[in-house]
Amino acid sequence: MADPHNPATAEADADAEAYLRGSMEINEQVSTFALFNFLTKWGSLFVVCLVLFVAVLMSTGGFIAALGTSVVIGVIGFIVLKSRKPKAH
């Protein structure tokens, strides 16, 4: 237990006593986590395609090669990342 007469810990003790538990409903937490996962997954695929497009475009590939490569990687990424329905037990 903290010493109430110790001024070095008084502020930390007051913060610990003032702590309140979160009041967010579980379904809100689940939907927020699902949105975060969705944006992370598809945002990462978009960034990969964009970086690949710029890299191939700036090399000797040209616009058509850059676009084709990015589309192919995007389609492969879409197939890999699309949601699968969980199997019933």
Structure description:
This protein has 89 residues and is mainly alpha-helical. The chain is built from three helices and no strands. It is elongated and about 75 Å long. The chain starts with 9 loop residues before the first helix and ends in an 8-residue tail after the last helix.
Which tags fit this structure?
mainly alpha, 89 residues, elongated, 3 helices
Q: Pairing-aware structural class of the strands and helices?
A: mainly alpha
Q: What is the count of DSSP helices, taking H or I runs of 4+ residues?
A: 3
Oligomer: single chain
Beta-strand percentage range: under 5%
Low-pLDDT windows of residues: none
Helix content: 55-70%
**Topology as H/E string?**
HHH
Task: Note the gap between the termini.
Answer: 48 Å
Put the structure in a nutshell.
With 89 residues, this protein is mostly helical.
